[in-house]
Every structure is written in structure tokens, then in C-alpha cells.
Amino acid sequence: MSDTTTQPTVWTLAHMAEVASPDNVNSPGAEWLAQVYGAGLEVAESIHEKDWTVSAMLEDGDAFDLITESADAIVPIYTHRLWAVFVDLAAYQEDVEEYGPTEDLTQSAMVALFTIARRLIESTLEDIAQDERTETTA
Prior knowledge:
This protein has 138 residues and is mainly alpha-helical. The protein has six helices and no strands. The chain is globular.
């Protein structure tokens, strides 16, 4: 990704993550989406530091662990923040059953936000991979 790339708007990030639009640019969900996007950029940077390409890592499936670790680390751990982000992004629409039964609603909310974070990080990396492919063919 070039240095002139600007961060997408919070509404673009919500679209990339396939969630409801945050209430405003300073809402808990908007701030969290920006943090998740930043985490995706950090994953790309760590891949590039090893002289690998994001596109190759995604194609080979080697980025899965990096994406999962990053998504897990970005989920809010404090209850108020967790629920504020959850409600702001309408994360209650997420299907978390694929992860098995959860012990309580807070755990379900954490799983939903993990799923959203993983999706946004993957989308961010896909965009970077597309840029890499474009640069190599130019």
C-alpha cells in the first residue's frame, strides 16, 4: 500500500466488515472499526517485514493465524466498551453458533466482535493484496 493511501471512512469500514453503520465518526463502534483497520495494516506490515507479500500469504492460507491472533487481541475486554461497540455496530445480527455454545451473553458478544474483526482484517488484507497485484502488473 502506498504512503498516500488514506484511511477509509468509518462507514466504508462498516461496509467492509459487513456490519451496521456506526452512529457517528466518534461513536464506540466507529473508533473500534478504525482500530481494527489499523490492526489489519499492522498485520500487513509484519508480513512485509519478512519480505513476503500479503497476496501470497492469503493465497496460501498462511495469513490465517496472523489474522486470527490480531482479531482476538482487538476485541474489547472491558464490559462497558464491549457492549457499546456491540450495540453501535448491531453485532447482535452476527451468527455465532458456528463457534459452539457460549456460557453467557458477554461471551457471545465477544465472539461476535471477534468475527467482525476477523472479517475486517481479512478485507483490509485483500485490498492490500489487490494493490500488490496491481503494482506487479504495472
